[in-house]
Amino acid sequence: MLADRERGFYSSFFFISRGVSMSAEDQATRGFTQIILDRIGHPFIGSFIFTFVITNYDILIDLFVNIRDPDAVLIFNSFLYSEWKTRLGVPFGMMLAFPILIQNGSDIVYTYFKEKTNTYIENRKEKEKLEIHLNKIENLKNQLYNQKDLNNQIVKQTCDIIQTTLNLVKNRDNIFHLQVFESNEVLEKGDFVSYLIDLGKIVFYDKNIMFLGRVFYKINDTLYIIECLDSGKLKELLKEMLNEKINSLPYHETFIKVNRKGDFELLERNNFTNHVIASKLKNHHDYKILNEGKSNNEILKESRMYLEVLLKRKTPKNFVYKNRWYYFKALICGKESEE
User: Fold this and answer.
1) Does pLDDT of 170 surpass 80?
2) Environment class of residue 275 by beta-carbon count within 10 Å: exposed (0-12), middle (13-18) or buried (19+)?
3) What integer pLDDT is reported at residue 20 of this predicted model?
4) CB proximity list for 337: less than 8 A, separation 6 or greater
5) SS3 content of the chain, % helix, strand, coil (to 5)
6) pLDDT exceeds 90 at position 191
7) Sign of the CA dihedral 108, 111, 114, 120?
8) Cα dihedral sign for 170, 175, 176, 181?
9) For residue 261, what are the CA distances in angstroms to 205, 323, 325?
10) CA–CA distance, 295 with 210 (Å, rounded to integer)
11) How many whole angstroms separate alpha carbon 30 and alpha carbon 201?
């Protein structure tokens, strides 16, 4: 009985000892393998080992197959040193060439193609953005063209409406010619006006500027309906309104000055004011027009053109002169004036 227990004890000890020793061998193998793998991962050593195995695969196979032969190592060394230029030179050469030339070269090639690819992608994106912007610009051009065409139609229809309305009023009141004009100064009904050709606007009468007519109706402080008068119609108007008064005066020649709201001032002498419009000699039936401006016949003939210019004209924003007092008030109020 005791002998059986001793045999069992020694058997258990033998197997436990064997398991421990195998575990240590496994650990050593794993450590050695890990060291080899780490070395292979190194660019220089890895290049050498890989090239060495490829170059000497034939003698390595013989070595492992005949590992029990005492002369196997001698034969391996004999081949290795007798053909060292190929079997050792190539691995050493690749150990230096691969990391320095091949790996760096591959990095350069990779970087080059990566930059080329990124540049192509960026150019493609920019091209797509450009195409989108060009399409937007083209759409805006089409919208502007359509809007311009629509505005022209609106202007044409508005001109037709205004012309028709003015013609109806003209025929009803037996008026020579009516037209709408714009002014930068406030006028009153009955005021005689002149036309500034460069600005396309009317002002109170000035003998040095083209005579246009008189205000028939004030639409607002900017727009006015003007009764346009040529020289013949102006003489008829003066004769109708002033003949009786002038004939009762003892003056040899009477000069007619226009005032606001269509009033006239009769003068014995020409005081060379810019508001003198005509003169009349005693015992003469005709009036002499003293306006020195250009004739208004062109406006009377092309009235629609001037009306279209008026409707298409953009109203400029009033310029605000910002002096020191302006900025001082803005500082006190905390904001700039909206005027």
Assistant:
1) yes
2) middle
3) 41
4) 320, 326, 329, 330
5) 60, 15, 25
6) yes
7) negative
8) negative
9) 11, 37, 37
10) 6
11) 103
